[in-house]
Amino acid sequence: MSVKKLSNGKYRTDVYDINNRRIIRVFNRKKDAVEFEIKIKNEKYNQKLTSLGMRKAKVLFDDILDEYLATKSHLRPGSVQRYTSVVNQFRAFLKERGIKYLHEFTPNDASELYKRLISPRKDPTGNTDKILKAKPKTVNFYLQVFRAIFDQEVRKENLTRNPMSHIKNLKVEKKRPDYYTEEELKEFFKQKMHIKHRYIFLVLLNTGLRFQELANITWNDVDIEARTITIRPKDGFNTKTFESQRKIPMNSVVYDIVSKLAESKESEYVFTSSKGEKITERRLLRVCKRIANDAGIKSRAYLHKFRHTFATHLVQKGVGIEKIQKLLGHSSIEETLIYAHVRPDNLHDDVERLTVLINNSFDKEE
Length: 366
What we know:
46% of the residues lie in helices and 8% in strands. The protein has a 3-stranded antiparallel beta sheet, covered by helices on one side. Strands 6-7-8 form a 3-stranded antiparallel beta sheet, with no helix packed on it. By secondary structure, the protein is mainly α. The chain has 3 domains: 1-41, no CATH class; 55-173, Tyrosine recombinase, N-terminal domain (DNA polymerase, domain 1, Orthogonal Bundle), CATH 1.10.150; 182-363, Intergrase catalytic core (hpI Integrase, Chain A), CATH 1.10.443. The longest helix is centred in the N-terminal third of the chain and has 22 residues, at 30-51.
């Protein structure tokens, strides 16, 4: 090691850079001196890889990050914003470390990046007594993005190995999905509500659709003869992931509802508000909470809970998990556990099992 402690208590490094120029620097802390020495050695190592043709030189990080974000531009605005925020924080880290080119980023930089992700930090609102710590799920999302950025460059042969490969995900304690019980569902649908609201809640329950997926279903997405609804991107709406593009089989409850609505189409959208307008999540959530309160439901009421209920009750009734994952349109391994491609037209019998939960409830109107 070229780091030596001086008589005044400081530390000196004596190294040669990639141009074989001698560099002597003095640091107050040994840690800083060692990090500087490691940085120079990594630069020399990276230069050697480049000279051997094992790594391409001078690939700008700004170009890399812009290209990565471009691959996320098709996602919903909220998702795009989330990825952009992570990438911008990565840019700030690179700028602070003086890293401009891809080959300058080392496994040591990856370790420092990880250390910062898991380190507690002060509350940015100014509350000095409050220390914030990122949740494991949040940390893992950041790591997922960082790995994907470098994997992109490995595939392009700008790197031979991902410098984040030695960083492991944090363990995430999975919470049991919250869902409505059969008794809660029966009490919920006993309540008076507008017929269109009843239709929407029943469809959410019997399809497992996300709210935005249901709200953006147009009549062009419906095939009444085949008894399917197609979830796909369109102007003003993007599916959550590529796997979210799928065909949803209609069980008898959904089929009867859609058939009734098809008799008098008021809008290009299949499911509309009580006034015939495009439904909004905030207003429907308010209706959902009111009905749940009238029904005496003590657990938290929210729209996505119908999706959890759809999946949970199918599992309880013996439907294979791989089929349920196909119906939900999950993509990540953490969500899917076991993923299998199942043809939608083979799933009608499976979703039909839900009809026993609520029978003929869509005919009641306030």
